[in-house]
Amino acid sequence: MHNKIKNSRILVTGGAGFIGSYVVEELLQYEPAKVIILDNLIRGSIDNMSSFIHNPVVEFVEEDVRDITILEKCVEGTDYVFHMAALRINACAANPREGFEVMLGATFNLAELCAKYKVKKVIYSSSASVYGLAQHFPTPETDNPYDNQTFYGGAKLWGEQLFRSFKFMYGLDYVALRYFNVYGARMDTDGKYTEVMIRWLDCIRENRAPLIYGDGSTTMDFVYVRDVAKANVAALLSGVTDEVFNVGNCKETSLKELLEILLKVNNSSLIPEHREENTVNPVSRRLADNSKIRDLLHFEPTISLEEGLAELSKWYFERKQETTFSI
Ligand SMILES: NC(=O)c1ccc[n+]([C@@H]2O[C@H](COP(=O)([O-])OP(=O)(O)OC[C@H]3O[C@@H](n4cnc5c(N)ncnc54)[C@H](O)[C@@H]3O)[C@@H](O)[C@H]2O)c1
């Protein structure tokens, strides 16, 4: 496939974050002329960027994506944009006005600037949250989005539609990617859904019984972050435009099974303890149908849950050890 990235200038909003930092690492293998990272570090970190922050090709702009003057400077002369800066689902629920400014306002400004400066393609980070509790399992992209109940999911869907309308009105090429449950080294350690992996890793480290709330039957589709980064680059390299794709691992894993695998990869014989469910989770199942991305972008996830959890565990335990020593 033609290397469109070579010698090009690329903007990654949210590039200091969990997924964004892997996208930058993946992009650098294709010899871009410049990668600009726009991130206010509200969640991202310099640590996440340690493998490339000193690379002369990389320019880190520690600013807010809501600052339209800064945003314009970043977009002007740029060939491609990955738009990943966003608030998390629980942050949007806690502060919908800020969610509106970041997820909708800044995304609108970005789309307008991309059209103004004739950016060649935008890769937009959407989410499986747009489905709410899906109607079909595995879930294809054609499942309806009306069961989503969250501000975050609504904002992501609006973003997809925004880029769709800009393609129609101004010819701005884009691809939107609906990630399922992304996990891996550098992941958020206090998110609403994924934090369970981290809490269990703490139990394994401290030799305490891991807790399962409810019967552990809630399922998710866990996709490793390096696979998600590859899906992003595949979306840029391909000639496909004006499409939305699921990015999952196509394996449905219950929380109970997740814990079993986590214990196995860490050679732990801890016995889980069950507690009564204390919250109502409106999304009890997640399972992606990846056939569209496989057929059109030739992307398939390659990292199994066992491999991914082993890599995550290694990262987390090493990190904990470093923080213990530095105290
Ligand atoms: N992690 C997942 O499971 C998942 C699932 C579906 C979709 N997504 C989407 O993927 C993208 C990346 O997610 P992530 O998991 O890497 O999250 P993350 O929080 O690690 O990354 C988002 C980055 O955006 C930055 N940011 C937030 N608000 C900003 C602002 N106003 N100005 C500048 N920078 C700002 C943060 O500092 C952070 O580095 C997001 O758009 C997210 O909604 C993630």
Automatic annotation (TrEMBL):
Domain of life: Bacteria
InterPro entries from the UniProt entry: Epimerase_deHydtase, Lipid_A_modif_metabolic_enz, NAD(P)-bd_dom_sf
Annotated ranges, domain NAD-dependent epimerase/dehydratase: 10-248
A Pfam family that the UniProt record links to this protein: Epimerase
Classification via PANTHER family: BIFUNCTIONAL POLYMYXIN RESISTANCE PROTEIN ARNA, UDP-D-APIOSE_UDP-D-XYLOSE SYNTHASE 2
UniProt-recorded name of the protein: UDP-glucose 4-epimerase
Source organism per UniProt: Pontibacter chinhatensis
Lineage: Bacteria, Pseudomonadati, Bacteroidota, Cytophagia, Cytophagales
